[in-house]
Amino acid sequence: MNNTNLQEIIARVLLLARQGGASSAEAGIGTGSGFMVTARLGEVETVEHQRDKGLNITVYLNRKKGSASTTDFGDAAIQETVRAACTIAKHTSEDEFAGLIDPEFIARKIPDLDLHHPWDLTPEAAIELAVACETDARNFDKRITNSEGATINTYSGSHYYGNSHDFTGGWDWSSHSIDCAMIAGHDGKMQRDGWYTKKRDPAELEDIHTLAETAARRALMRLDSRQLPTLTVPVIYEAPVAGSLFSSLINAISGGAQYRKSTFLLDKAGKKIFPDYINIDERPHLKKGPGSAPFDSDGMATRERRLVANGVLQAYILSAYSARKLGLPPTGNAGGVHNLIVETGKQDLASLLRSMDKGLLITDLIGFGINQVTGDYSRGASGFWVEHGEIQFPVEEITVAGNLIDMYHQIIAIGNDVDTRGNIQTGSVLIEKMTVAGN
After folding, report:
1. 113 with 39, same domain?
2. Residue 55's closest CA among 180, 193, 162, 179?
3. Where is 5: in which H helix or E strand?
4. 394 in a structural domain
5. Pair (113, 236) in one structural domain
6. In this predicted structure, what is the pLDDT of residue 2?
7. Rounded CA gap, 164 and 353, in Å?
8. Which of 107, 121, 260, 387 is the most buried (most CB within 10 A)?
9. Would you say residue 286 lies in a domain?
10. Cα 162 to Cα 11: distance, rounded to the nearest angstrom
């Protein structure tokens, strides 16, 4: 189904909604296809093909809202889905904050963000890649005793949205990844670790041989892990796990958390929540960016902005609805943030370890022990004990605890080893002190 067809479906939905008595309506449509192959122990383990499509419809009867969805794009199914949304709206209570985003915020120009790079890869070729990657990793060292496999994943899709403000727009996108996980064994004990690469453009994926070596090395480094006694020490979150610190920030400053008063950062706009040298930007128009989007789920144009300037929170993350609830202008964040970029310092991870001198390097987190209302933080972790600025031995079965308010204020440095694979991009984060609970 081509993009013209998708736009025609949206136009049909909006017409049917108007004929059904809706004062306004909006529709989002998504289609896509791809496949995933996994190889383990030199053999093909799975081949999965994926084909998706979905249509979400929301109608407004003044301030009464109804929503329905379908995966059937036939005209009869679309008519029935619109009727269902209108029926739901008729039976819901009025909400003074419900409704489409105001027309002045609608995206009228849609920049090309270079998000669509299909991978000309057959399943047979993907199998060869996966087998080669997994075999390289297993052969790296005799202590690699088992494998969780190597997986190749490729997907391309389209996203379109339209509403009664005479707006329809969308874009094509792609996402491709290679993942490899190994199991290392020594003296009857086993450890698992791995690595992955993910890009919109397959030409920018990490070489499979380099990826395999990284996966094997990380598994081997975990061997002979120890526990620690309970202590309070400096902690470094390695870049791949440091993003979780800032995802908690985004949850805390979201409009929903603010108007429900269910956040440890309630009413903190204009207040200092980080040290002076912390700056955090949202950059939704990065070419090929993992979170790039020309407009949000409300149809509002996205724009670059600074969320944290010199440690001070500048604004919240607002959709049209949450903005109305708070009496603030929307920010183009219906559906979340788009490429959160944490400004880095000049130190790489090795330099951060030397700065810390003695403490814990966290490379993996387990569970989700975060209270978004109070900021209390407690998560299972594993990583490495550091002394004299050098890794001494791997550690496991520990818990790191603190409070996010204190943790944010106690960030000493952010490394330049930025992990660019996700929507939140940051280097490793050094925190002045946290409680590490061990044996």
Report:
1. yes
2. 162
3. helix 3-19
4. yes
5. no
6. 73
7. 55
8. 107
9. no
10. 8
Query: CB of 279 within 8 A of CB of 343?
Result: yes
Q: How far is CA 23 from CA 99, 199, 367, in A?
A: 9, 41, 45
Residue 282 covered by a domain: no
* pTM for this model (two decimals): 0.94
Record the tokens describing residue 294, joined without a space. Answer: 């020309």
Residues 114 and 238 in one domain: no
Handedness of CA 411, 415, 417, 421 (dihedral sign): positive
Whole-angstrom Cα distance, residue 100 to residue 60?
Answer: 8
Mean pLDDT value of segment 143-151 = 97
**Which structural domain, as residue segments, surrounds residue 372?**
231-244+344-437
CATH code where residue 52 lies: 3.30.2290.10
Q: How far apart are CA 192 and CA 107, in angstroms?
A: 46
Count other Cβ atoms within 10 Å, centred on residue 432: 16
Residue spans of alpha helices (H) in 70-178: 75-90, 123-138
- Tell me the pairing of strands 167-186 and 189-199: antiparallel
CA distance 420 to 341: 9
Looking at the predicted structure, is the pLDDT value of residue 328 above 80?
yes
Query: How many structural domains comprise the chain?
Result: 2
Residues 21 and 45 in one domain: yes
How far CA 53 is from CA of 21, 100, 158, in Å, comes to: 27, 24, 9
Reported as type and span, the H/E element at residue 381 is strand 376-387
Percent of the chain surpassing pLDDT 70? 100
* φ and ψ at residue 255, rounded to 5 degrees: -60, -40
Task: Assign 439 a pLDDT band (cuts: 50, 70, 90).
Answer: confident
Note the pLDDT tens digit of each residue in 221-267: 999 999 999 999 999 999 999 999 999 999 999 999 999 999 999 99
